[in-house]
Amino acid sequence: MGALQSLHGRPEYLDLAEKTGFSFEQIRVLHERFKQLSHNEETLRRSHFNEIPDLACNPIRAQIIEAFFDRRNYHQNGEGTVEEIGFEEFLVVMSHFRPPSLHMTEEQRENVRREKLRFVFNMHDTDNDGTITLEEYRHVVEELLSRSGALEKETAKSIADAAMLEVASISMGHMEPDEFYEGITFEHFLKLLDGFEIESRMNIRFLNMDTSTLCK
Amino acid sequence: MAVVRSSCGSSARLTAPTCVLLLLLFAFVSVASASRDDAPGGNNETGRAPPEDSHHHHQQTNSSTHHKKAFPVLSFNYEHVRQPFEISLWILLALLMKLGFHIIPRVSNVVPESCLLIVVGLLIGGIIKAIGEKAPMLDSKLFFLYLLPPIILDAGYFLPIRPFTENMGTILVFAVVGTLWNTFFVGGMMYAVCQIEGAQLGGVDLLSCLLFGSIISAVDPVAVLAVFEEIHINELLHILVFGESLLNDAVTVVLYHLFEEFSHADTVTVGDALLGVVCFFVVSLGGIMVGAIYGLLGAFTSRFTSHTRVIEPLFVFLYSYMAYLSAEVFHLSGIMSLIACGVMMRPYVEANISHKSYTTVKYFMKMWSSVSETLIFIFLGVSTVAGPHAWNWTFVIFTVILCLVSRVLGVIGLTYVINKFRIVKLTKKDQFIVAYGGLRGAIAFSLGFLLTNSQLKNMFLTAIITVIFFTVFVQGMTIRPLVELLAVKKKKESKRSINEEIHTQFLDHLLTGIEDICGHYGHHHWKDKLNRFNKAYVKRWLIAGERSTEPQLISFYNKMEMKQAMMLVESGSAAKLPAIVSSMQNIQPRGPARPRAIPSISKSREQEIRKILRANLQKTRQRLRSYSRHDLLIDPFEDGLSEVRFRRQRVEMERRMSHYLTVPANRQEIPSVRKVCFEPEHQVYTYDTDGESLRGRRASHSHPSASDAAGLVNESTRRPDQSGAAEPRAKVPDDQEDQDQLTLSRCLSDPGPNKDEEGGGSFLS
Fold it and tell me: Quick one: pLDDT at residue B181?
């Protein structure tokens, strides 16, 4: 099998492949990219990410970069952030964007959905308390609109408020005037994006061929 | 007609007899018009003129002059208006038929409308033929120049861009490779069938068979639209089949002309085949380019129409129609040109034109395409009865079978290849629906009608009609129960929510970022680049005013907020408000307990306001959003939208100005009273974020809204002297509107008639 030959004596690929579900070829390509980004060092730091030119014009750049350093995304029920990551963590974060395979049971598909939504949830919930508060959601909307030039903060606030109201009404139905909606928990988040079909949308194509020499 | 009117009024008790009556009426008039076609021109005038006239006429020509001709009070001149009269009559009666179908609910649930219309056409054709008159045929020129463009324009203008571009590769493969496969398979196998002894088909050569194959193999957009719109299938499958039907036009055009040319030529060389391939690229890319140019022209024109709003819709239609005709001039693909024009034009035109024009464009397009579709199917039925047929059992049966087989094989084979490249694979169920949804329709018939070789033409036409009937009737009728049986995913019923919009955008940026980190230029990267190019350069040229810099999220949000405000007002009951308003309070951090105030809105005031609101806004029903012609989204607020926006901005400005008043926390009457002037116009249009501040203003005049000023304070940093007042309210929400809502909740939740509690849900749905 061709895959065995391309292992080049790297048994740790087997382990990673099992953990993340990537194929050997894909892991190899990503490893090349990792080395390119980190200038052949062993670990990646935030400064390395900041050097990617295409990423500079992305409005949610900071959140994306943070997601790589967030322990909650490492499947180990960790908390907090780290300062630098190795290839394994890089790969684990990337594995959130793998498409679901064709022959999956409903349960597996549901798990994939939860996992992806958990990733997005973690990106929103910056203070790690398990809920997305109004302030955090406002911040998300502000960041999204931050590249559009003259933006009134008020509009972003209004949008976030309306969105929050919607979540509240979907999750809690009718609430008494004295009740207070703390924030979006993960369960509410799941319910909110129920029809969103994130398992088909939150995927990118991972190449089997190395094209990193063609791009910056 | 009186019968129809009365029975329409008595809600849907139109029974079969009345429908038959309609049918007979239709038949009678069309017979009359058909017979008039044959009557020699002169008869009408002399035959129908009242005797005195002709008498006087004779007298005059006899030149015994001194009698003064009596002034003709009533005369009859049908020739004068014959043609428009007949056209209008056909259209009118076709639409009455359509009306009739929808009044009988049972039938329209089982049988798709296209089938019913074909049956009506058959009946009409039968009646006309029985009387011995010549029935009108579906003329190809009429079809291609007048009946087809509205349908395609409607499809192209409202094409859902996101799923279309995401699945573009799949759609192109199905359209191009699939159609080629169908053509050659059917053509080749039919040739083999024709070689069978005893089938009397010896005169059919290979090229004719291939020509026939090219006509019959293309999936028809009209038929697909007509059937698929009624089954509400999920977006992916809909766009796959529908996109394929649109894009295969280029292939069909090239193959048809190619084989027709070849069948007149003596030899076919490889060079000719290569030219055919080149021709395909020219036809498709040329068509798209022509369409894009007209689209950009249309968008650019719409930038300047702010002073002549009335003619805005016409620009959309005319530029699109010109794109179609221009492409047809060069034998490029008119359908692709039309689609490209619509797609290119739409985002810019919609940003520029007024909302009334937008409504007009939408409704007119749906209207024209609906009429066209109805006429096409009826004419198809009539032409079936009228046309000369040459029935050949072998040919027809084998055609039908081969079409089915080739479609199934083609879809399975192509999906196997495509799935290697797709992120989200197509399942077996998807494949089945795609294969089963490959309907043939009137385009095949019209192309067959254009054939010049008369001896084969009749046989081909018969076979084509049989295939069309088979696909439309059998497949069209059974696809709905099959969809239910296979539990294929249906279209999502819910409306787009602000959260989904936020997350759609969020996901776009996230995936683009991840792609950049991964280091390969994928789908998202290019889409992002295109968006940025669009925003930086194109929008500036094509969109007027400050709308050119408005980000999509904000325009979506504005639309949504207007919708909700209008919905709220339309529902008209104040009882719903406490639920909604209180939920606003619920998401804000809890502040210190405030003294509750006594509400004092008199009932009469409330009634008066409600009456004014109702009078100013039209009452419409909200319907499900779909691309179907059968149910349109009737926006309740289209009429007042631009006005509302304008007023809102004005009010916004006024509020900002009122911010400059430094009012200490305990003296609230002044700003609140100022705001609550009971001018009806102001009250109607002072909508804020969630619409409740309307009521808030109404209510707040009666008691001090203690937190008004404080709210203002938190917003602006330029009044440090008020920060002291702000301290105890540090956790109080910053926005002005929230204050109003809080006060409102306090005053309305106390005694008021809190009748229904589901306001929150419906408000935010």
Answer: 92
> What is the rounded average pLDDT of the residues A6-30?
76
Q: Which residue in B has a C-alpha nearest to residue A149's C-alpha? A: B549
pTM for this one?
Answer: 0.70
Same domain, A67 and A112: no
Structure confidence by residue, pLDDT tens digits, B327-384: 999 989 899 999 999 999 988 888 888 888 888 999 999 999 999 999 899 888 888 8
Give me the pLDDT at residue B20, please: 57
CATH number at residue A116: 1.10.238.10
Say yes or no: B689 contacts chain A, CB-CB below 8 A.
Answer: yes
Same domain, A69 and A111: no
pLDDT for residue B479 is more than 80: yes
The CA distance from A201 to B714, in Å, is: 40
Q: Which two tokens stand for residue B653?
A: 């400005």
pLDDT (0 to 100) of residue B296: 92
Question: How many domains, chain A?
Answer: 2
Q: How far apart are CA B643 and CA B356, in angstroms?
A: 11
- With contacts defined as CB-CB under 8 Å, which chain B residues touch A54? 516, 525
Q: Is the same domain home to A162 and A188?
A: yes
B226 or A170, which is more confident = B226
Q: Are residues A135 and A118 in the same domain?
A: yes
Q: Both A121 and A50 in a single domain?
A: no
Cα–Cα separations (whole angstroms), residue B30 to B131, B133, B136, B387: 11, 10, 10, 17
pLDDT of residue A178: 62
Q: Which of B525, B554, B690 sits opposite A162 (nearest CB)?
A: B690
Q: Which residues of B touch A206 (CB under 8 A)?
A: 518
Say if residue B527's pLDDT is above 90: no
Averaged pLDDT, B675-703: 38
CA distance B371 to chain A (A): 35
Domain boundary among A79, A96, A113: A96
Q: Is residue A3 in some structural domain?
A: no
Q: Is residue A30 part of a domain?
A: yes
Query: Is B586 in contact with A174 (Cβ distance < 8 A)?
Result: no
Burial B386-414 (b: 16+ CB within 10 A, else e): bbeeeebeebbebbbebbbebbbebbeeb
For residue B611, the model assigns a pLDDT of 59
Q: What is the pLDDT of residue B415?
A: 93
Q: At A84, phi and psi to the nearest 5?
A: -145, 150
User: Quick check: B514 and A94 CB within 8 A?
Assistant: yes
To the nearest whole angstrom, how far is the Cα of B658 from the nearest Cα of chain A?
Answer: 17
* Mean pLDDT over the full length of chain B: 71
Distance from the B671 Cα atom to the nearest Cα atom in chain A, whole angstroms? 21
The reported pLDDT for the residue numbered B291 is 94
Strands A44-45 vs A131-132: parallel, antiparallel or unpaired: unpaired
Helix (H, G, I), strand (E, B) or coil at A44: strand
Tell me, yes or no, whether A92 and A114 share the same domain. Answer: no
Same domain for A111 and A85? no
Is A2 part of any domain? no
Residue B585 with chain A: CB contacts under 8 Å: 177
**Chain B residues with beta carbon closer than 8 angstroms to that of A181:** 583, 586-587
Residues A40 and A126 in one domain: no
Share of chain B above pLDDT 90, in %: 15
For B726-729, the CB contacts below 8 A with 24+ separation are: B728/B592, B729/B591, B729/B592
The answer, yes or no, to whether residue B31 has pLDDT greater than 60, is: no
Residue B193 predicted with pLDDT over 80: yes
Structure tokens at B302: 């719409």
CB contact under 8 A, A174 and B512: no
Please say which residue of A30, A61, A96 terminates a domain: A96
Q: Which domain holds residue A41?
A: 13-96
Query: Nearest C-alpha of chain A: how many angstroms from B299?
Result: 22
Residue A76 in any domain: the answer is yes
Nearest of A193, A157, A134 to residue B499 by alpha carbon:
A193
